[in-house]
């Protein structure tokens, strides 16, 4: 599965792969493999990306077209 929304979000934020990989504390090569679908994205990386882009993990994964993030969980 290609993660095209991850690429689209990155491009919309005017970031290149190297810049966003740095935000995620990883290599550009490793990050590139997420965008192309060569490697599955670990949950922790999905959450960090969703938080950074102010969206939901489901949006990144293509499970919803609703871009806004979910409300924070109630305590």
Bulk shape: globular
Major β-sheet profile = none
Distance between the termini: 35 Å
Q: Average pLDDT across residues?
A: 93
- Counting helices, strands and paired strands, the structural category is mainly alpha
Uncertain residue segments:
none
Elements, N to C (H/E): HHHHH
Rg computed from alpha carbons, rounded to a whole number of angstroms: 12 Å
Q: Count of DSSP E strands?
A: 0
Number of helices: 5
Strand content: under 5%
Helix content: 40-55%
Describe this entry's structure for a reader.
The structure is a single chain. This protein is an all-alpha fold and 75 residues long. It has helices spanning 4-12, 17-23, 28-36, 43-53, 57-60. It has five helices and no strands. 53% of the residues lie in helices and 0% in strands. The model has no long low-confidence stretch (mean pLDDT 93). α2 crosses α3.
Note the main attributes of this structure.
single chain; 75 residues; mainly alpha; 5 helices
Summarize the structure.
The chain is mainly α. It contains five helices and no strands.
Topology summary:
Blueprint: H1 4-12, H2 17-23, H3 28-36, H4 43-53, H5 57-60
Helix pairs in contact: 2-3
């Amino acid at each position: 599965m290609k993660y095209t929304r991850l690429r689209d979000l990155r491009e919309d934020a005017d970031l290149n792969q190297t810049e966003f990989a740095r935000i995620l504390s990883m290599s550009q090569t490793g990050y590139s493999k997420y965008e192309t679908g060569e490697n599955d994205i670990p949950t922790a990386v999905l959450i960090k990306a969703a938080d950074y882009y102010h969206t939901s993990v489901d949006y990144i994964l293509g499970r919803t077209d609703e871009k806004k993030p979910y409300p924070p969980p109630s305590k």
